[in-house]
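Input record (one chain):
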Amino acid sequence: MSGILISGGDVIDRSGRRRADVRIADGTIVEVGDALAAGPDDRVVDAAGLVVSPGFVDLHTHLREPGKEEAETIETGSRAAAKGGYTCVVAMPNTDPTQDSVSVVEFVRRQGEVAGLCDVRPSGSITVGRRGDQLTPMAELAAVGVHLFTDDGNGVQDPLLMRRALEYALDLGVVLAQHCEVARLTEGAVMHEGHCCSRLGLPGWPSLAEELMVYRDIELVRITGAPVHILHLSTAGSVELVRRAKADGLPVTAEATPHHISLTDELLAGYSSLYKVNPPLRTMADVHAVREGLADGTIDAIATDHAPHAPETKEQPLDQAPPGMLGLETALGVCIAHLDVPLEQIVAAMSWQPAAIAGVGDRHGRPVAAGEPANLTVFDPTVEWEVRPAELASKSRNTPYIGVPLRGRVRHTILDGTLVVVDGAAQR
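The corresponding structure, as predicted from the sequence alone:
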């Protein structure tokens, strides 16, 4: 039986770091050890100087299909994910139509299977149409495998509705993921409310708008006992609120994006919409707080919030352009370049920790050991590189990292025992 032998790499998984060869056959890791001999039909992957880890899992990917295929399709987004080392992504529900019904969720899942580049797990919206006034049929969606529910792009404004959603989620064994934004405080906002927005004369998005909802939902967790996952933390105050919630033993998890650990609001001084995101880029003090949250475990996961936009929309004036930037292909390079933590900790935050939150820990983020699914990433942690737009797999090009030195790049990605990326090139 033909297989794959990954030779000479440093394996990083939840047990630590070690030098080992990894043999794969029929979608499964069959042997891990020293100086394994290649079989006559084995494809040998030379991993000398490289790291072999469980595949990355992204909790927060916008694939745009159905409805905005001019910006991204499930196929192109899956290809970008695979090139970034992701073997599984959670597809956000702000599509058109919204992922608030079994038919739309099943469409997204099927399109992911057809692409065959990574495991696409559809999320479901908390409310119908993400309008915030009526809960979706959560039991029906959970029955077809939806584990994460979110109105991402909108925070659930009604505290009673959010409480009811948490109570249902607890009964169903699913997780609600909240976009924390008090909408009345951000009406017309373009960027972070601070010195920079005042100097530029632009309406500001205050930190308080995020922190009020983080606080509210933590207190709702306290009275319901239901878990909540907080999307894209961006302020020092939010990080501290989550830190206290965890100290109290509450089932609260949180994620941070690569751009919120590497970019600040001052970059909008040139009025470039490439730097417009939601929540907005904050101050350097907030950046340091988010980095510290990742370092001390307050923040569980690194999630890309990959948000492709067609050029004709993103190139509008700053106050009219939609928020969001690409993230799947650059996440590893940004994180290694900007986080002063052990590499093992970065891999944990990109692999098995988000896998547990997403409910995919049976297939992804698994130990690199015999008998485990062969969903793996092989990357060079030291190579320095810069983004070339023509080489991006995403259908869109709205990344601010062009010309910015990054460190660490994926070389190979293995999904269910198949090499879907070889030497940085997608095979499908």
